[in-house]
Amino acid sequence: MLQMDDNKIIRRLYHTQGWKIRRIVRETGFSRQTVRKVLRGEHEGQYRMKAPRAKPVIGDHVAAIRKLLQAEQDDKTRPKQLLTAQRIFKLLKKDGYTGSASTVRRTVREVRREMGLGKKEAFLPLEYEPGVDGQADFFEADVDLNGVRLTLTFLVLRACYSRRPFVARVPAENQESLFEALIEGFEHFGGVFHNVWFDNLTAAVNKILNSRARRVQERFGQFEQHYAFEATFCAPAKGNEKGGVENGVSYVRRNALSPVPKVRDLAEVDDLLREFMEEEDERVSARCTETIGETWTQEISVLIPLPASPFDSSRGLRRKVDSRALVSVETNLYSVPVALVGQRVTVKVYAQHLEIHTNHKRVARHPRLYGHHRSSFDLAHYLPLLEHKARAFDRAAPVRAAQATWPPTYPEFLRILREREGSAKGTRSFIQVLHLHQDRCVEHVHQAVQQALTHEEPSVATVLAYLDLQQREENPPESIDADVLERFPIVHVETGDVAQYDQLLKEAAK
Questions:
Q1: 263, β-bridge pairs
Q2: Degrees (nearest 5) of the Cα angle 316, 317, 318?
Q3: Residue 7: pLDDT over 80
Q4: Which pLDDT value is given to residue 209?
Q5: Do 148 and 294 belong to one domain?
Q6: Per-residue pLDDT, 140
Q7: 247 in Cβ contact with 240 (< 8 Å)
Q8: Chain segment 416-432, per-residue pLDDT in tens
């Protein structure tokens, strides 16, 4: 059996003295096979497994792990939304896995290495005081909405001490979205952190003066003053300075939004986020003995109290109404009542919607459009004009946009009115029904039109009659109790003589 010194001699002769294997064999007496083993690092007597060690607990789940990781690659999941070993551990538990999380982590690491997916990251541990620091950041994640892959934008606001997160879906990384999500986050936490860390996002920073000094956007400065916190910005390209929220973003992606959620509407995404935040309050973070929710109670009393009223997150604009009763905001068009054509109005732009005001009165409200050269019409704004230009009804863009929301009874009702009253007059009669949407329940109007179509001669008067009947059925007159009636005196009224009226008529005819 070779000794350690023999191994050392063979390696030195080969690597230091430059001897060939043949000479080493001849001079030392060792076999060629032995010399080659030593040079390959194989020591005589060293134990080698003939087959991989059996893994009875995790073995049946390795294929499932590989399938999950491969599905991510096939779906082109963004790197920051990939499954973590901890998330895979939770998924395997639902499938009956009974082993430990450490075994899953080790197996995931091995499978990733086999698939060429291994990656290591280094993080700097940080410590914070209760209620002092919070960190905010936008991030993106994918969802499958009815089979269509969409990239959505979110904002996470994280308490640095307790690690309690708040996550909200926002329409875009703009200033209005930043304000509204932060306001919602502050209300969720019940107060404001003394110091909030941000990247150098354009919604907040107007200009970077040096590594620390910033010239902030005017509206952001007003927001900061309203909530009395101090905004701190990372040095350029130094997002690691707010590593807590960076880790938090990754954690949210991989625990609330992995695998890529398959949803029927965006409300389901919001439900997923709410469920995630509730579960986080029950989680015990690494190297902690209390849950996140219990640790959070230490921060509440230290937060800055919320102001008496929330900050107005809207951005104000002045616009002139064009000849089509439209105002332009970021290349998109929004309608106003036709009576305002040529006037200047104030537009208040929010993240999800916008409002149009004149003389301190709101005259229009629309969902905010993202994209370019799109239009939002409110048909009610154009009804007075359509009454005078009934022949343009079928080709009017506001009408065509509204038709998508009409029940099938509306086109039938319009056809009947036109056949009986003529094209122009029948259209004007139908416009009267559309006017009812402004002060009556739209569903009630739909139902009244459907009932009117069962009448022999459907008309606007028939629709109004059915609406009045609905109102009486929903709000019947109050009956008077018998004990109340007993308190009223009984009054006897004599019946008149009808013959006296006949006598009066005869006298008048003479």
A1: 145
A2: 135
A3: no
A4: 78
A5: yes
A6: 92
A7: no
A8: 999 999 999 999 999 99
| pLDDT at site 81 | 80
In the predicted structure, residue 485 carries a pLDDT above the cut 70: no
Tell me the helix, strand and coil percentages in the chain, rounded to 5: 45, 15, 35
* Nearest residue to 78 (alpha-carbon basis) of 150, 20, 132, 162: 150
Residue pair 431/387 in contact (Cβ under 8 Å)? The answer is yes
Q: Output the six-digit token pair for 84.
A: 């973590």
CA distances from 94 to 114, 258, 263 (A): 25, 15, 21
Compute how many other C-beta atoms are within 10 angstroms of the C-beta atom of residue 255. Answer: 17
Residue 345's DSSP bridge partners are 319
Please report whether residue 404 resides in a domain: yes
User: Quick one: 256 and 397 in the same domain?
Assistant: no
In a domain? residue 493: no
Give the pLDDT confidence score for residue 264 in this predicted structure. 94
DSSP single-letter state for residue 498: H
Assess whether pLDDT exceeds 80 at residue 247: no
Burial of 154 (0-12, 13-18, 19+ CB in 10 A): buried
Number of domains the chain is built from: 5
Residues 142 and 272 in one domain: yes
Range of the domain at 468: 382-474
Q: In what order do the strands lie in the sheet with 375-376?
A: 326-329, 332-335, 375-376
What secondary structure does DSSP assign to 432-497, as a single string?
HHHHGGGTS-HHHHHHHHHHHTTSSS--HHHHHHHHHHHHHHHSPPPPPPHHHHTTSPP---PPP-
pLDDT tens digits along 27-81: 888 888 888 888 877 665 555 666 666 777 888 888 889 888 888 888 888 777 8
* Total count of residues recorded for the chain: 510
Res. 237: pLDDT tops 60? no
* Average pLDDT taken over every residue of the chain: 87
Q: Are residues 208 and 294 in the same domain?
A: yes
- Angle between helix axes 218-227 and 175-189 (nearest 10 degrees) is 10
Q: Is residue 253's pLDDT more than 70?
A: yes
Contact 204, 97 (CB under 8 A): no
Domain contains 224: yes
